Amino acid sequence: MHYFFWLLVGHITGDFFLQIYKLWRLKRQSGYYLLLHVWLYTVSLTVTLYFIDLFAWWKPVVLFISHFIADYLKCYVFSFRTSRDKLLGYALDQIVHVAVLVMLLPW
């Protein structure tokens, strides 16, 4: 549980605190900004993994790829037009991100 807590702190830092409003908006308009967001997220969690002694070279790769795919689908493939759809998209996005963190724990 201790490790999961720190991974959640890294996730919240990378997915929310390091993503200013301008970046949040621009990542929906340009793949460059989406990659920048995913890179910041990955760096945040890589530092966290290193800090809690769970770092392995392949974990940042998994984090980067899975986060990119989830956010790409949310930003460019699925259209969330209504407030309800946007909330559902947000919830699914967060579930995917947290599920990846849970899968990284035993390794």
UniProtKB/TrEMBL annotation:
<keyword id="KW-0472">Membrane</keyword>
<feature type="transmembrane region" description="Helical">
    <location>
        <begin position="87"/>
        <end position="105"/>
    </location>
</feature>
<dbReference type="InterPro" id="IPR021737">
    <property type="entry name" value="Phage_phiKZ_Orf197"/>
</dbReference>
<keyword id="KW-1133">Transmembrane helix</keyword>
<keyword id="KW-0812">Transmembrane</keyword>
<feature type="transmembrane region" description="Helical">
    <location>
        <begin position="6"/>
        <end position="24"/>
    </location>
</feature>
<protein>
    <recommendedName>
        <fullName>DUF3307 domain-containing protein</fullName>
    </recommendedName>
</protein>
<feature type="transmembrane region" description="Helical">
    <location>
        <begin position="31"/>
        <end position="51"/>
    </location>
</feature>
<feature type="transmembrane region" description="Helical">
    <location>
        <begin position="57"/>
        <end position="75"/>
    </location>
</feature>
<dbReference type="Pfam" id="PF11750">
    <property type="entry name" value="DUF3307"/>
</dbReference>
